[in-house]
Design goal:
The chain has helices spanning 14-18, 40-52, 54-61, 73-87, 101-104, 107-117, 122-129, 159-176, 196-211, 253-265, 268-274, 280-291, 296-299, 304-326, 333-339, 353-375, 380-388, 394-405, 423-428, 433-451, 456-463; strands at 20-26, 32-38, 92-96, 98-99, 133-139, 142-148, 182-186, 189-194, 216-217, 223-225, 238-239, 242-245, 248-251, 411-413, 416-419, 473-477, 482-486. The chain is of the alpha+beta class. The strands form six sheets. The protein has a five-stranded mixed sheet with strand order 7-8-3-10-11, sandwiched between helices.
Amino acid sequence: MLQKLLGDVPPNVVPLLSASKLIAIPKHGNDVRPIAVGEVFRRLTAKTICQQKSPEFASYFSPIQHGIATPGGAELLTHHIQILLEQNPDWSILKTDVRNAFNSVSRERLLQQIAKDFPDIYPHVKQLYGESSKLIYVTDKGVELLTSSEGVHQGDPLGPALFSATIHPILCEVIKRHEGVTMLAYLDDIYVVGPVNSLRNILDDLKSSLSTLHLEILDRKCELFCPSGNVCNFPTPVTSDGTIILGTPVGKPEFVRSQCADIAKGGKELCRELALLNNRQISMLILRHCHVPRLNYLARQVFPRDLELAAVIHDKMTRSSFVDIIGFNHLNDTAWKQATLKLKNGGFGLTQIGQISHAAFVSSWCQSMKELPSRFLCMTDLVDYLTSSKEKSGSIGSEVISSFSDLPPLSKSADNDEDFQTLDDIIAYPKKLQHRLCTEINEINVSELIAQAPSDKDAARLRSLQGRGAGDCVLFEVGIGFTVYQVGESV
C-alpha cells in the first residue's frame, strides 16, 4: 500500500492532481473559509493514507494533539480541561487563535518535517505541495485562477495531519520550557491551562516559536478565561464567566446554561422554514436528521443540570415543528411520546434531548476516562478517584455519579446478562455506550406506551411494530384511535 507512494506521477499530470476547486464558505462577520476540493483520486489516496497511518499518527501526536487519529478528540480535550479547572480553581485557560493557519504554514518546513518523521509518505506530499498549485474559483463574473504557494489545502483529507505534523514539534518544545502547565490542541486551536503568570510567558513563547513557521497569533483574537477574575494587564481579552472550548461552553453554571440556551434557540429559523416546505416527507427527514441531533454534541459534554433549559427549548421546538409539519394541532402527550420512538418501534425518530442527556453525558465521560490515563499517566489516580468514590468528589464526580444512577439497567454485552454495577464496569466497556443506553430508554418508552394504550386493540397494534421490518410503517395516535402512515408516503 504505502510503499507504492513513489511520487512518480508524470510531471505533466502533477499540476492537475495538485489543483483544486475553491469554495468560499461564509464565517462569522464578513470573513470566509476557503475550502479547496481536490481531484477525486487525490482525495481517495489521502483518505487511504490517513486510514493506514492512523495508529502511527495516534502515537506521534499524543498527548498534545487531539484532532488527528483521536476518536472523540474534541470531547476528550473538553473533559480534560474541565477536570483540570476543578482540581485547580486558581488556574486559567489561554485560548490562542492562529491567523489563517492552514493556508499560511510554511511548506518548506512542512516538507522537512514530513521527510523526517513520515518518510514513507514524503514522495506523495512532495509531489502535491513541492511546487505552487492552482486554485480554481468560479464567480458570477467568470473563472479566476489563484496561486497557492504556502500552507495546506483546507479540503485535502491529509491536510490536517500535515499541518499538525508541522506545528507538533514546536508545541512539544514550548511545553518543555514551561513547567506546571498543560497544553492541549485540536488542529490549530491551542489551549494552555495553568497559573496566569505562566500563561503570560507561554503566550510570548508560542508567538515567537510559531512565527518561524509563518504563523501569527493575534492577541485580540485570543482569550484568557480566569475564573477568579484576578488578572491585570494581560495582552488578550479576559473573561471570568466562561469561555467556549471547541463549541462547548465551559465556566460558571450561569454562563454555561445561557450559552446552551442560545445555541438551542439557534434552531428556531430552521424549524420555521420546515413548515413552509411543500413536501412533508422532506420536512420530516430534515427535522429528524438535522434539527433533532443539534444538541447531541453539547449533551455529551455539558452537565445534564446545566443543559436542562436548552433541552426544554430544543424539545419544545421539535414538537412544535412536528405539529406544524403534519398540520395536526391537537397532539396529546401520549401521541407525542410515540412520535419520539425510533422508526422501527413505530415512532418518527424525534429523540428528546431531555430524555437522553444523562446517557449522552455519562457515555462521553466514560469514554474519555478510559482514554485519558493512557495519554496522561498523571491522570490515573484522579480518574480512579472520580469514578470509584462513594462520596461527592467535586461537581464533576457528583454529576457523573448522579447521572449514572439515573440510567436504566444495561447488560455488558448481548451474551452477558449481568448489569453494570459501578462506573468502573461501564468505563471498561464504553463502546457504543450512548447507543446502547438510548436503546434501553426507547424500550422503556415502548413498554410504557403499550401499558397505557387505551384498548387491547391499540396495544396489539403497537406491539406489531416491534418486530423485524416494522420500520416500513409508522403507527401514530392522532387523538382517537391510531392511523398508519407508510414511510414512503407523505405524512
